[in-house]
UniProtKB/TrEMBL annotation:
<keyword id="KW-1133">Transmembrane helix</keyword>
<dbReference type="GO" id="GO:0005737">
    <property type="term" value="C:cytoplasm"/>
</dbReference>
<protein>
    <submittedName>
        <fullName>FAD-binding oxidoreductase</fullName>
    </submittedName>
</protein>
<keyword id="KW-0472">Membrane</keyword>
<dbReference type="InterPro" id="IPR006076">
    <property type="entry name" value="FAD-dep_OxRdtase"/>
</dbReference>
<dbReference type="InterPro" id="IPR036188">
    <property type="entry name" value="FAD/NAD-bd_sf"/>
</dbReference>
<feature type="domain" description="FAD dependent oxidoreductase">
    <location>
        <begin position="17"/>
        <end position="372"/>
    </location>
</feature>
<dbReference type="Pfam" id="PF01266">
    <property type="entry name" value="DAO"/>
</dbReference>
<keyword id="KW-0812">Transmembrane</keyword>
<feature type="transmembrane region" description="Helical">
    <location>
        <begin position="12"/>
        <end position="34"/>
    </location>
</feature>
Length: 374
């Protein structure tokens, strides 16, 4: 161990009953549900960053569960049962988040979701409309609601250009990502969960009677380990189908008389934008170079920043001037399958990751499931 005092070893760096690696949505909610189940247990979260290091504080704040074209795209490679079960879990995950925190605590707004289609997506739109009834009927059997409908009448309302069609989703909304995470952290601490930042776990040693976490502060024995690092989980589970996927984002300075309200999807979910504090937040472009975006490195590239800026000028804000105020990126967890990896690994570890860009929807669902598994 590093230079810990007697007091630090006695009261801080000591045996923990449950150790969660990662302080994102899944790690925090998992810790909360575990602590509620075992109030006397020592439940600790280890986070390598000053703030959550993946996407939980860097996402766009979409309370969404899948656009129409994204669902059809998924059906090309996965069974109907798998796709619609995942939609159900995302929908229930959003409900679980809203039960855990109030809408005021997350900044949730029931704005609806909108998918836009330009000339480049003409065939995609036609396929969406062709299968709209089927998707609505199947979703209704799964979550109890029909969700999608044509919303071409709102194109002028939003002030778009080069947008030919819109399909709306009545059950999507937006949240304030930072507010949600701040209140989740506060809730976890109020329940008695310990959170240590700046602690990076390099590997887990299972050779002893109990797991040993090897960290930049030394080794520590623990009881059950929950790996909730999503896009970074491949570092601890290199054999699993989990890869990092960088999501780049830009945000404008405030814009007067901004017409856009809601969460918007484009190009099978690869692009997304919204109004937040009279600014446009726009993310996406990963499809331009998926291989290069399979990285653990944060940062923004000129190629994708220029692409997003051009999309803003040509389609989203064609009549108005805007100025980019900030750029940033987050790391998602993806794989060949979109199904969540949620399983026990041996007798003392739970793997809980691979959300495919749907961490807000799936994080609380998975965290609650972790609480039920221990």
């Amino acid at each position: 161990m590093k230079n810990f005092s007697y007091w630090e070893r006695k009261h801080f760096w000591n045996y923990w009953d449950f150790t969660i690696i990662g302080s994102g949505i899944t790690g925090l909610t998992g810790a909360i549900f575990i602590k509620r189940k075992y109030p006397k247990a020592k439940v600790t979260i280890l986070e390598r960053g000053m703030l959550p290091s993946g996407a939980s504080t860097k996402n766009a704040g979409f309370a969404c569960f899948g656009s129409m074209s994204e669902i059809l795209d998924d059906l090309e490679t996965a069974s109907e049962e798998s796709v619609f079960n995942l939609l159900k879990n995302r929908f229930n995950g959003l409900l679980a988040l809203r039960r855990l925190l109030s809408d005021k605590q997350t900044g949730y707004m029931p704005t609806k979701g909108f998918e836009i289609f330009t000339d480049n997506e003409r065939e995609i739109y036609e396929n969406c409309m062709h299968r709209l009834h089927f998707v609505n009927e199947t979703i209704a059997q799964t979550i109890g609601h029909k969700t999608f409908e044509n919303a071409d009448g709102q194109i002028d309302q939003f002030g778009f250009k080069n947008v030919n069609h819109i399909i709306s989703n009545a059950y999507e909304g937006t949240i304030d990502t930072g507010l949600m995470m701040k209140n989740l952290i506060d809730l976890a601490r109020s329940e008695g969960v310990e959170i240590y930042n700046g602690v990076e776990v390099s590997d887990i040693d299972y050779s002893g009677e109990r797991p040993q976490l090897n960290t930049n502060y030394g080794e520590i024995k623990t009881g059950t380990v929950v790996v909730a690092t999503n896009g970074f989980a491949g570092r601890l589970f290199p054999e699993r189908d989990i890869k990092p996927a960088r999501a780049q984002v830009i945000i404008t300075k405030p814009i007067k008389n901004l017409k856009i309200e809601g969460c918007f999807h484009h190009n099978c979910g690869y692009n997304y934008f919204r109004n937040i504090d009279d600014r446009i937040l726009l993310g996406g472009g990963r499809h331009l170079n998926k291989v290069a975006e399979e990285t653990y490195e944060m940062g923004n590239t000129l190629e994708i920043t220029d692409y997003l800026s051009d999309l803003m000028k040509s389609t989203i804000l064609p009549e108005g001037d805007f100025e980019i105020d900030q750029t940033w990126s987050g790391i998602m967890g993806v794989g060949q399958s979109k199904e969540v990896i949620l399983e026990k690994v041996g007798a003392s570890t739970i793997a809980a990751f691979r959300f495919g860009g749907m961490g807000i929807a799936l994080g609380t669902y998975v965290g609650k499931s972790v609480g039920e598994m221990v």
